[in-house]
Design goal:
mainly alpha; elongated
């Protein structure tokens, strides 16, 4: 029982860091364009993240049952702690380096690495690819839910940001700059709110999936057999074969509130990287980037795909900057970001794997 509570606590720490790290990505543009003050932007992002996190559970179900094969390895509470620690350590390292890393991919990497170690290097424990006979976007596994979206979502974000910006230039090329700025000062508040909402719908759900996994592990091992009636809500039976794990309402509320608190903590080092160092933004640029990124995340969330808010907003900003002037983008900053993206899953996975081996070396079994 105590270990289950530790998993939930560590998962909420990850959610808090996610809120402070990834939400900085979602509000970087509205702060850098000076449409909102930092405090106003944080308040907007916190409230819209809270609302978004309470909507839907498709991404949470992917994390809970679409990446590690429960028929090959049973994820224990210690395995989940190792996965979360790997993700947290990588996120903190990227935050310290002022690099906008993906909390989503860090968690996925940590989960796969820890699951592989728990399975004693049985690579069949990882669901690599399970295409759906019905629709391709309903496939399971790393290929369908992680690798392809990791490439496709930033690519679409970049192209969409470029197209939206070009269209705005064509439509408004005769308008006075002052009038354009006044109009998009107001419009960007709506695009920033939509970005915050979509961030909540996708990112908060990843921790929901981890907590649900921990509760299933505790239920199947009998950890809740003798608990008082008032904590019986923790009892979470595994789903029937072929069915997806359901996410309890209290899990959604707790994760939403934790991400909201993390958002309030801010992440100004990353805001400076995205909103100032990569490309100089005006309100019209911020509107185009946020609208494009929110559209990509909306589509991904609908299909239960855990995409990276970091990747989509960063690539959308690149697309907007390229439409303005190709050399307006500081490509040295972009290069550092891309390397962080490339290394996130393997490094977080290696950390999760090593944490499991460390516990095993200490005589603490994880499976």
């Amino acid at each position: 029982m105590a270990l289950i509570l530790v998993v939930i606590l560590v998962a909420l720490v990850f959610e808090f860091i996610n809120g402070s790290n990834d939400t900085a990505n979602s509000i970087a543009t509205v702060v850098s364009t000076k449409v909102l003050s930092p405090r106003q932007a944080i308040l907007l992002a916190a409230s819209t993240n809270l609302l978004g996190a309470l909507c839907g559970t498709a991404v949470a179900k992917t994390i809970a049952s679409g990446l590690v094969d429960s028929q090959v390895v049973t994820l224990t509470t210690l395995t989940l702690i190792c996965a979360l620690l790997g993700a947290i350590l990588w996120n903190l390292l990227c935050w310290y380096s002022a690099l906008p890393s993906s909390s989503s991919h860090a968690l996925i990497g940590g989960l796969c690495g820890a699951g592989l170690a728990t399975a004693h290097n049985n690579w069949h424990a990882i669901i690599w690819s399970q295409p759906s006979a019905e629709h391709w976007w309903k496939g399971k596994g790393l290929l369908w839910k992680v690798v392809l979206p990791m490439v496709i979502s930033p690519t679409i974000g970049l192209i969409l940001g470029f197209i939206v910006m070009v269209l705005l230039y064509l439509l408004l090329h005769k308008a006075k700059p002052q009038s354009v700025n006044v109009a998009f000062n107001r419009l960007q508040m709506f695009s920033a709110a939509s970005m915050g909402f979509m961030h909540g719908t996708n990112d908060a759900q990843k921790t929901m999936g981890i907590i649900a996994l921990a509760l299933v592990a505790g239920t199947t091992t009998g950890a809740f057999a003798d608990v008082p009636q008032w904590v019986h809500f923790l009892h979470t039976p595994p789903p029937a074969p072929g069915q997806e794990l359901s996410i309890a309402a209290w899990i959604k509320v707790v994760c939403a509130l934790t991400m909201c608190a993390g958002t309030a903590a801010g992440g100004w080092r990353i805001i400076r990287t995205l909103g100032h160092k990569m490309v100089k933004l005006q309100p019209i640029n911020g509107f185009a980037a946020e609208t494009s990124s929110a559209a990509v995340i909306l589509t991904a969330t609908h299909f239960g795909i855990p995409v990276s808010t970091t990747h989509t907003i960063s690539s959308a900003i690149m697309g907007v900057g390229a439409a303005k002037r190709f050399n307006a983008i500081k490509w040295s900053v972009v290069e550092r970001m891309v390397w962080a993206w490339v290394f996130t899953i393997p490094v977080a996975g290696t950390l999760g794997y090593c944490f499991v081996l460390l516990l095993r070396w200490l005589g603490i079994t994880t499976g």
